[in-house]
Amino acid sequence: MKALGIETSTPIGSIAIVNEKNIIASSIFSSNVLNYGEWLGLEIKHLLSISNTSISDIGLIAVSSGPGSFSGLRTGMAFGYGISKGLNIPVVSVATLDGLSFHFIEDERQVCPIIDAKRKRIYTALYKKKRKISDYITCTIDDLFPLIREETIFLGDGALLYKDLIREGLGNLAHFALSFKNIPLSINIAFLGVEYFKKGKINDGCIYP
Fold first, then answer.
1. Packing angle, helices 70-87 and 36-50, rounded to 10
2. Backbone angles phi, psi at 103, to 5 degrees
């Protein structure tokens, strides 16, 4: 199965075509240069062309469902559902936090992706080896600290924003991702979409509240 992944939850967006094991093609983009509505249509066609993939070869759409930019998520969802309707193929929505955690699926340490929710609040969850071990949480950064009892990798724009406070509050328990792993990527969304589809985890595609 070939899947098209769409990630538009932040100003750095991306799309990717994958099969069950490999990346076929991918592209990354800043919405500060061109808006998502213009870029997605053009770049999906470009990726299909350079990868010698026909649109009819795509069997699944995986779309980031947030949290993140509402306008970006809405545009990504609209494209994903438009393609799925035209091809009569399923759509799987994948939480942006799940996609971020996928950067560290082989790491034995706990992983804590954080997305800035503005007004001094964050979106977060805890993971270990790809498995989510907490609910999705909306809280302040200080509220998060009592939940961290072991070495934890922090990543995401919220981790960058609150890095000094996290280091001060957690000391040696806190580790931080390299810069590029703080960006949600469509490759992760696509691979997780395939996995979720196999498990029957197709949700309603609603944007994260």
1. 50
2. -60, -25
pLDDT at 183: 95
Of all residues in the chain, what percent carry a pLDDT higher than 70?
96
Q: How much of the chain is helix, strand and coil, in % rounded to 5?
A: 40, 25, 35
Question: In whole angstroms, what separates CA 15 from the centre of its chain?
Answer: 11
Banded model confidence at residue 205, pLDDT cuts 50, 70, 90: very low
pLDDT tier, 203 (very low <50, low <70, confident <90, very high otherwise):
low
Measured between alpha carbons, how far is 74 from 56 in angstroms, rounded to an integer? 24
Question: Using the 8-state DSSP alphabet, how is residue 206 labeled?
Answer: P
Amino acid making up residue 83: I
10 Å Cβ neighbour count for 143? 13
Distance CA 124, CA 67 (A): 9
Average pLDDT of span 1-28: 95
Mean pLDDT of all residues in 187-209? 79
Those residues with Cβ within 8 angstroms of residue 147's Cβ, 6 or more apart along the chain or in another chain: 126, 134, 137
Furthest-apart CA atoms within the chain: distance in Å: 52
Residue 155 DSSP SS3: strand
